[in-house]
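HUMAN: Spend a minute on the protein record below and explain its fold to me.
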Amino acid sequence: MPISGGLAMIKSVINDLPESEKKIAAFILYNPNAVLTMTAAELGDASSTSSSAVIRLCKSLNLSGFQELKMRILGDLNSLHEASYSDIKKNDTIKSIVQSLRNNAIKSIDETLQFLNEETLKICVNLIDKADTILIYGMGASFLAAKDAQQKFIRVNKSCYAMEDTHLNATMVANLAKNDLVIGISTSGETRETIKLVELANLRDINTIGITKYGKSTLGKLSKYNLYTPSSIETPFRSAATASRMSQLYIIDVLFMCYATSKYDSTINYLKNTVDTIDDYKAL
C-alpha cells in the first residue's frame, strides 16, 4: 500500500479532535511542507501546543507515530491529484462538467486507496471466504454499492443478499450463523437503518464489516472491522453522491478481486459457467 493519506486523514477527523490536537492539525494543513523537517517538539512549539499533543494526534489518526505521519504527508505532496472536489455550478459547460466528474472520480479512488489497510483487507477477505451467507446493506446511493456486491459475489457462487426491505434484512440476520457476515455501507456512518442492522448482527455475535467514513461514526464504532472512505469526499450539495459512490464501489471491487484471486481456479470455473449459462439463456 502507498505511504500517503496524512492530509486526508487530518481533514476527515479535525472537527472531532480535542482543542490542542485541532491546533496541530490546522497548522499541518496550512504548512504541510514545513512539517516535514520538524521534530515533534518543534511542531508542538510552532502550533502553541506540545510534543505530547503531537503524539496524541498521531494516535487519534491510528498511526504508529510522528514519523509515519510525516511520510504520509510527503506522499500526499508528491501526489499528482491535489485538486479539490467540484460540484455543480451555474453556467457550467458540458466540457467543464465532463472534466470535473473525471477529476472527482480519480480523486475519490486515490483518497480511498490511502485509507485501505492491507491487514484489515486480508481479514475481511477471510471473513467473506468463511461465510456461507453474506448480507450487505446501505440506504440511498449506498444501496447501489450493496447491489453491485451482490451481483459480483453471486457470479462466483457466493450467497450474497442486498435487499431494500429492512424487515427482510432483520429476518435474515435472525437466521444467520456465526460464521456468516453482515456488511453495512454508509458514507456518514450515521444511517439509522444500517446501524440497526449491524446492532442486530452484533447481538447474535455475527461478524460485521463497516464501509464508512474515516474518523468517528456510529457505524465505525459498532462494526468489528472497517474499510474507510474519506469523510471530505463529498461536495456541499452532494449532487447524486457521485464521489462517495465511486469510493464505495472501489472498495467493493477490491474486496471481490482479492477474494476471487484467493480462489482463482474455482473463480474462473464459476465465471465461465456464468457466461455460458447467460449465453444459453439469450439463445432461448
Summary: The chain has a mean pLDDT of 90. The CA atoms of residues 92 and 98 lie 10 Å apart. The first strand starts at residue 133 and ends at 138. The chain is about 60% helix and 10% strand.
